[in-house]
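pls read this protein:
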Amino acid sequence: MRGHSVTNRKLRVLHAIVELYIEDGEPVASRSVAHRLSENLSSASIRNVMADLYDEGYLAQPHTSAGRIPTEKAFQSYVRCLAVRRILSDELRRLRHELAEIGTLEGRLHRSSEILEEMTRGVGIAAAIPAHSQTLDQVDLLKLADGRVLMVVVTRDQMVRNKIIHVADPVTEDELHSIRNYLNVNFSGWTLIEIQHEVEQRLRHESAAYDAILRKLQVLYNSGLLELALLPEIHMEGASNLVGLDLHLTREKLRELFRALEEKKKLLHILDRYLDDPQDEVGVQVGLASAHPAMGELSLIGLTVTLPSGVSGKIAVLGPMRMNYERVMSAVAHVGHALKAI
Protein backbone atom coordinates (compact mmCIF):
# COMPACT_ATOMS: atom_id res chain seq x y z
CA MET A 1 0.00 0.00 0.00
CA ARG A 2 2.84 2.36 0.89
CA GLY A 3 4.50 1.69 -2.49
CA HIS A 4 1.20 2.39 -4.27
CA SER A 5 0.91 5.72 -2.42
CA VAL A 6 4.42 6.73 -3.45
CA THR A 7 3.59 5.88 -7.07
CA ASN A 8 0.50 8.08 -6.98
CA ARG A 9 2.49 10.90 -5.43
CA LYS A 10 5.09 10.64 -8.19
CA LEU A 11 2.35 10.80 -10.83
CA ARG A 12 0.77 13.87 -9.26
CA VAL A 13 4.13 15.64 -9.12
CA LEU A 14 5.05 14.55 -12.63
CA HIS A 15 1.75 15.67 -14.17
CA ALA A 16 1.91 18.98 -12.33
CA ILE A 17 5.34 19.52 -13.90
CA VAL A 18 3.99 18.69 -17.38
CA GLU A 19 1.09 21.12 -16.99
CA LEU A 20 3.35 23.91 -15.73
CA TYR A 21 5.76 23.32 -18.62
CA ILE A 22 2.91 23.35 -21.16
CA GLU A 23 1.72 26.68 -19.77
CA ASP A 24 4.96 28.67 -19.92
CA GLY A 25 7.66 26.49 -21.50
CA GLU A 26 10.13 27.19 -18.72
CA PRO A 27 12.03 24.64 -16.58
CA VAL A 28 9.92 23.84 -13.53
CA ALA A 29 11.20 24.37 -9.99
CA SER A 30 10.04 22.44 -6.92
CA ARG A 31 8.53 25.60 -5.43
CA SER A 32 6.21 25.99 -8.43
CA VAL A 33 5.08 22.38 -8.09
CA ALA A 34 4.37 22.91 -4.38
CA HIS A 35 2.15 25.89 -5.20
CA ARG A 36 0.40 23.86 -7.90
CA LEU A 37 -0.48 20.88 -5.73
CA SER A 38 -3.21 21.18 -3.13
CA GLU A 39 -1.64 18.56 -0.85
CA ASN A 40 0.78 19.64 1.85
CA LEU A 41 4.14 18.70 0.36
CA SER A 42 7.28 20.65 1.14
CA SER A 43 9.66 21.80 -1.56
CA ALA A 44 12.23 19.40 -0.12
CA SER A 45 9.85 16.43 -0.49
CA ILE A 46 9.05 17.46 -4.03
CA ARG A 47 12.75 17.80 -4.85
CA ASN A 48 13.25 14.20 -3.71
CA VAL A 49 10.40 13.01 -5.93
CA MET A 50 11.77 15.03 -8.84
CA ALA A 51 15.18 13.44 -8.33
CA ASP A 52 13.57 9.98 -8.60
CA LEU A 53 11.67 11.03 -11.73
CA TYR A 54 14.90 12.34 -13.23
CA ASP A 55 16.65 9.02 -12.56
CA GLU A 56 13.71 7.15 -14.16
CA GLY A 57 13.89 9.20 -17.38
CA TYR A 58 10.77 11.31 -16.89
CA LEU A 59 12.59 14.61 -16.38
CA ALA A 60 15.57 16.33 -17.91
CA GLN A 61 17.65 19.22 -16.60
CA PRO A 62 18.85 22.01 -18.89
CA HIS A 63 22.46 22.92 -18.17
CA THR A 64 21.65 26.54 -17.43
CA SER A 65 18.71 25.98 -15.06
CA ALA A 66 18.02 24.46 -11.68
CA GLY A 67 14.54 23.49 -12.85
CA ARG A 68 13.45 20.35 -14.69
CA ILE A 69 11.62 19.83 -17.97
CA PRO A 70 9.44 16.82 -18.84
CA THR A 71 10.71 14.31 -21.37
CA GLU A 72 8.72 12.54 -24.07
CA LYS A 73 8.21 9.72 -21.57
CA ALA A 74 6.62 12.20 -19.14
CA PHE A 75 4.21 13.52 -21.76
CA GLN A 76 3.20 9.96 -22.62
CA SER A 77 2.42 9.26 -18.96
CA TYR A 78 0.42 12.49 -18.70
CA VAL A 79 -1.63 11.78 -21.83
CA ARG A 80 -2.53 8.26 -20.66
CA CYS A 81 -4.26 9.75 -17.61
CA LEU A 82 -6.36 12.22 -19.59
CA ALA A 83 -9.94 11.57 -20.53
CA VAL A 84 -11.71 13.11 -23.50
CA ARG A 85 -14.20 15.68 -22.28
CA ARG A 86 -17.81 14.68 -22.80
CA ILE A 87 -19.11 15.85 -26.15
CA LEU A 88 -21.77 18.50 -25.63
CA SER A 89 -24.91 17.68 -27.58
CA ASP A 90 -25.40 21.30 -28.73
CA GLU A 91 -21.84 21.52 -30.04
CA LEU A 92 -22.15 18.17 -31.79
CA ARG A 93 -25.43 19.23 -33.43
CA ARG A 94 -23.86 22.49 -34.59
CA LEU A 95 -20.87 20.76 -36.15
CA ARG A 96 -23.04 18.06 -37.71
CA HIS A 97 -25.39 20.67 -39.21
CA GLU A 98 -22.50 22.71 -40.63
CA LEU A 99 -20.86 19.69 -42.25
CA ALA A 100 -24.16 18.25 -43.51
CA GLU A 101 -24.80 21.42 -45.51
CA ILE A 102 -21.72 20.63 -47.63
CA GLY A 103 -22.69 18.36 -50.50
CA THR A 104 -19.52 16.36 -51.10
CA LEU A 105 -17.27 14.28 -48.91
CA GLU A 106 -14.27 16.19 -50.21
CA GLY A 107 -15.87 19.46 -49.10
CA ARG A 108 -16.69 18.05 -45.67
CA LEU A 109 -13.13 16.86 -45.20
CA HIS A 110 -11.77 20.25 -46.19
CA ARG A 111 -14.10 22.02 -43.76
CA SER A 112 -13.26 19.49 -41.02
CA SER A 113 -9.55 20.29 -41.33
CA GLU A 114 -10.40 24.01 -41.08
CA ILE A 115 -12.56 23.48 -37.98
CA LEU A 116 -9.79 21.50 -36.28
CA GLU A 117 -7.30 24.27 -37.03
CA GLU A 118 -9.70 26.91 -35.71
CA MET A 119 -10.44 24.97 -32.49
CA THR A 120 -6.85 24.05 -31.64
CA ARG A 121 -4.52 26.46 -33.49
CA GLY A 122 -2.61 23.38 -34.58
CA VAL A 123 -2.46 21.68 -37.97
CA GLY A 124 -5.88 20.23 -38.75
CA ILE A 125 -5.87 17.07 -40.89
CA ALA A 126 -8.81 15.16 -42.35
CA ALA A 127 -8.43 12.20 -44.69
CA ALA A 128 -10.65 9.62 -46.35
CA ILE A 129 -9.24 6.32 -47.53
CA PRO A 130 -11.48 4.86 -50.25
CA ALA A 131 -12.54 1.25 -50.21
CA HIS A 132 -11.58 -1.01 -53.08
CA SER A 133 -15.29 -1.70 -53.58
CA GLN A 134 -16.15 1.87 -54.60
CA THR A 135 -19.29 1.92 -56.74
CA LEU A 136 -20.08 4.34 -59.54
CA ASP A 137 -22.73 6.97 -59.07
CA GLN A 138 -22.25 8.89 -62.31
CA VAL A 139 -19.78 9.91 -64.98
CA ASP A 140 -19.55 13.27 -66.73
CA LEU A 141 -17.44 14.04 -69.81
CA LEU A 142 -16.60 17.58 -70.87
CA LYS A 143 -14.83 18.59 -74.06
CA LEU A 144 -11.81 20.87 -73.62
CA ALA A 145 -9.49 22.57 -76.08
CA ASP A 146 -6.60 20.85 -77.85
CA GLY A 147 -8.16 17.40 -78.06
CA ARG A 148 -8.60 17.00 -74.32
CA VAL A 149 -11.54 15.61 -72.40
CA LEU A 150 -12.28 16.18 -68.72
CA MET A 151 -13.63 13.06 -67.05
CA VAL A 152 -15.48 13.51 -63.74
CA VAL A 153 -16.36 10.33 -61.85
CA VAL A 154 -18.57 10.47 -58.75
CA THR A 155 -18.80 7.35 -56.59
CA ARG A 156 -21.55 6.39 -54.14
CA ASP A 157 -19.32 7.27 -51.18
CA GLN A 158 -19.47 10.90 -52.40
CA MET A 159 -15.87 10.99 -53.55
CA VAL A 160 -15.19 12.89 -56.77
CA ARG A 161 -12.38 12.07 -59.20
CA ASN A 162 -11.25 14.40 -62.01
CA LYS A 163 -8.95 13.36 -64.80
CA ILE A 164 -8.01 15.01 -68.10
CA ILE A 165 -7.32 12.63 -70.98
CA HIS A 166 -5.83 13.45 -74.37
CA VAL A 167 -7.70 12.07 -77.38
CA ALA A 168 -5.96 11.60 -80.71
CA ASP A 169 -9.16 11.33 -82.79
CA PRO A 170 -11.64 14.23 -82.65
CA VAL A 171 -14.71 13.69 -80.49
CA THR A 172 -17.84 15.87 -80.52
CA GLU A 173 -20.00 17.10 -77.65
CA ASP A 174 -22.84 14.86 -78.85
CA GLU A 175 -20.58 11.81 -78.86
CA LEU A 176 -19.39 12.59 -75.33
CA HIS A 177 -23.02 12.97 -74.26
CA SER A 178 -23.89 9.57 -75.72
CA ILE A 179 -20.90 7.86 -74.10
CA ARG A 180 -21.70 9.45 -70.74
CA ASN A 181 -25.31 8.23 -70.93
CA TYR A 182 -24.14 4.77 -71.99
CA LEU A 183 -21.86 4.47 -68.98
CA ASN A 184 -24.36 5.89 -66.48
CA VAL A 185 -27.29 3.77 -67.68
CA ASN A 186 -25.32 0.53 -67.92
CA PHE A 187 -22.88 0.79 -65.02
CA SER A 188 -24.25 3.02 -62.26
CA GLY A 189 -24.04 0.96 -59.07
CA TRP A 190 -21.19 -1.24 -60.34
CA THR A 191 -17.78 -1.18 -58.67
CA LEU A 192 -15.06 0.60 -60.63
CA ILE A 193 -13.11 -2.62 -61.01
CA GLU A 194 -16.20 -4.45 -62.34
CA ILE A 195 -16.81 -1.65 -64.83
CA GLN A 196 -13.27 -1.82 -66.18
CA HIS A 197 -13.49 -5.58 -66.68
CA GLU A 198 -16.91 -5.42 -68.33
CA VAL A 199 -15.98 -2.53 -70.63
CA GLU A 200 -12.85 -4.40 -71.73
CA GLN A 201 -14.93 -7.48 -72.55
CA ARG A 202 -17.50 -5.49 -74.55
CA LEU A 203 -14.80 -3.68 -76.49
CA ARG A 204 -13.15 -6.98 -77.39
CA HIS A 205 -16.45 -8.33 -78.71
CA GLU A 206 -16.84 -8.32 -82.50
CA SER A 207 -19.98 -6.16 -82.39
CA ALA A 208 -17.98 -3.28 -80.95
CA ALA A 209 -16.61 -2.57 -84.42
CA TYR A 210 -20.13 -1.86 -85.69
CA ASP A 211 -21.43 0.21 -82.75
CA ALA A 212 -20.65 3.94 -83.09
CA ILE A 213 -20.82 4.58 -79.34
CA LEU A 214 -18.53 1.65 -78.54
CA ARG A 215 -16.07 2.75 -81.22
CA LYS A 216 -15.76 6.17 -79.61
CA LEU A 217 -15.71 4.60 -76.17
CA GLN A 218 -12.78 2.49 -77.38
CA VAL A 219 -10.88 5.68 -78.30
CA LEU A 220 -11.52 7.25 -74.89
CA TYR A 221 -10.80 4.03 -73.03
CA ASN A 222 -7.46 3.62 -74.80
CA SER A 223 -6.67 7.20 -73.75
CA GLY A 224 -7.18 6.41 -70.07
CA LEU A 225 -10.93 6.63 -69.47
CA LEU A 226 -11.92 4.90 -66.19
CA GLU A 227 -8.29 4.41 -65.17
CA LEU A 228 -8.76 5.75 -61.66
CA ALA A 229 -6.32 5.04 -58.87
CA LEU A 230 -8.02 4.62 -55.50
CA LEU A 231 -6.17 7.56 -53.98
CA PRO A 232 -7.07 9.00 -50.58
CA GLU A 233 -8.44 12.48 -50.08
CA ILE A 234 -6.23 14.38 -47.63
CA HIS A 235 -6.86 17.93 -46.46
CA MET A 236 -4.59 19.91 -44.15
CA GLU A 237 -5.01 23.41 -42.72
CA GLY A 238 -2.82 25.50 -40.42
CA ALA A 239 0.72 24.43 -41.25
CA SER A 240 1.75 28.06 -40.80
CA ASN A 241 0.89 27.70 -37.09
CA LEU A 242 4.13 25.75 -36.72
CA VAL A 243 6.13 28.85 -37.67
CA GLY A 244 7.32 30.67 -34.59
CA LEU A 245 7.11 27.66 -32.30
CA ASP A 246 10.28 26.90 -30.40
CA LEU A 247 10.94 23.57 -32.12
CA HIS A 248 14.74 23.98 -32.01
CA LEU A 249 14.94 23.57 -35.78
CA THR A 250 17.33 25.23 -38.18
CA ARG A 251 15.82 27.03 -41.13
CA GLU A 252 16.73 24.10 -43.37
CA LYS A 253 15.14 21.59 -40.97
CA LEU A 254 11.99 23.72 -40.86
CA ARG A 255 11.87 23.66 -44.67
CA GLU A 256 12.26 19.88 -44.56
CA LEU A 257 9.33 19.71 -42.14
CA PHE A 258 7.06 21.69 -44.46
CA ARG A 259 8.14 19.63 -47.46
CA ALA A 260 7.24 16.46 -45.56
CA LEU A 261 3.81 17.84 -44.68
CA GLU A 262 3.17 18.80 -48.30
CA GLU A 263 3.71 15.20 -49.45
CA LYS A 264 0.32 13.56 -49.16
CA LYS A 265 1.86 10.11 -49.36
CA LYS A 266 4.16 10.93 -46.42
CA LEU A 267 1.30 12.42 -44.44
CA LEU A 268 -0.88 9.38 -45.05
CA HIS A 269 1.98 7.13 -43.90
CA ILE A 270 2.20 9.10 -40.64
CA LEU A 271 -1.57 8.82 -40.09
CA ASP A 272 -1.54 5.07 -40.78
CA ARG A 273 1.52 4.49 -38.62
CA TYR A 274 0.42 6.32 -35.50
CA LEU A 275 -3.38 6.26 -35.59
CA ASP A 276 -3.87 2.53 -35.27
CA ASP A 277 -6.10 2.69 -32.18
CA PRO A 278 -9.54 1.04 -32.28
CA GLN A 279 -12.31 2.81 -34.23
CA ASP A 280 -13.63 5.98 -32.55
CA GLU A 281 -10.89 5.94 -29.89
CA VAL A 282 -8.71 9.03 -29.73
CA GLY A 283 -5.03 8.14 -30.00
CA VAL A 284 -2.02 10.26 -29.07
CA GLN A 285 1.54 9.93 -30.30
CA VAL A 286 4.04 12.12 -28.45
CA GLY A 287 7.14 12.80 -30.53
CA LEU A 288 7.31 11.89 -34.22
CA ALA A 289 11.07 11.68 -34.70
CA SER A 290 10.76 8.12 -36.00
CA ALA A 291 8.58 9.44 -38.85
CA HIS A 292 10.82 12.40 -39.70
CA PRO A 293 13.83 13.92 -37.90
CA ALA A 294 12.25 17.39 -37.96
CA MET A 295 9.12 16.13 -36.14
CA GLY A 296 10.80 15.13 -32.90
CA GLU A 297 9.06 17.87 -30.89
CA LEU A 298 5.62 17.40 -32.46
CA SER A 299 2.68 15.31 -31.29
CA LEU A 300 -0.20 13.81 -33.25
CA ILE A 301 -3.70 13.43 -31.83
CA GLY A 302 -6.34 11.72 -33.92
CA LEU A 303 -8.87 8.99 -34.41
CA THR A 304 -10.17 6.69 -37.12
CA VAL A 305 -13.88 6.64 -37.95
CA THR A 306 -16.00 4.80 -40.46
CA LEU A 307 -17.98 7.35 -42.43
CA PRO A 308 -21.61 6.64 -43.43
CA SER A 309 -20.52 5.82 -46.98
CA GLY A 310 -18.24 3.06 -45.65
CA VAL A 311 -15.04 5.02 -46.29
CA SER A 312 -12.42 4.96 -43.54
CA GLY A 313 -11.75 8.47 -42.25
CA LYS A 314 -8.87 9.81 -40.17
CA ILE A 315 -9.25 13.05 -38.22
CA ALA A 316 -6.14 14.48 -36.56
CA VAL A 317 -4.30 17.49 -35.19
CA LEU A 318 -0.54 17.90 -35.44
CA GLY A 319 0.99 20.30 -32.97
CA PRO A 320 3.85 21.03 -30.59
CA MET A 321 4.60 18.67 -27.74
CA ARG A 322 3.68 21.58 -25.49
CA MET A 323 -0.01 21.63 -26.39
CA ASN A 324 -3.25 21.55 -24.42
CA TYR A 325 -3.82 17.82 -24.91
CA GLU A 326 -7.21 17.69 -23.22
CA ARG A 327 -8.62 20.45 -25.42
CA VAL A 328 -7.17 19.00 -28.62
CA MET A 329 -8.33 15.47 -27.82
CA SER A 330 -11.86 16.77 -27.26
CA ALA A 331 -11.79 18.81 -30.49
CA VAL A 332 -10.72 15.75 -32.49
CA ALA A 333 -13.47 13.66 -30.89
CA HIS A 334 -16.10 16.36 -31.58
CA VAL A 335 -15.25 16.70 -35.27
CA GLY A 336 -14.81 12.97 -35.79
CA HIS A 337 -18.19 12.13 -34.28
CA ALA A 338 -19.91 14.95 -36.21
CA LEU A 339 -18.42 13.78 -39.52
CA LYS A 340 -19.37 10.18 -38.79
CA ALA A 341 -22.96 11.06 -37.85
CA ILE A 342 -23.91 12.79 -41.12
Summary: The CA atoms of residues 163 and 247 lie 40 Å apart. The first helix runs from residue 2 to 24. Strands lie at 59-60, 69-70, 123-129, 136-143, 148-155, 160-166, 233-237, 283-286, 298-306, 312-320.
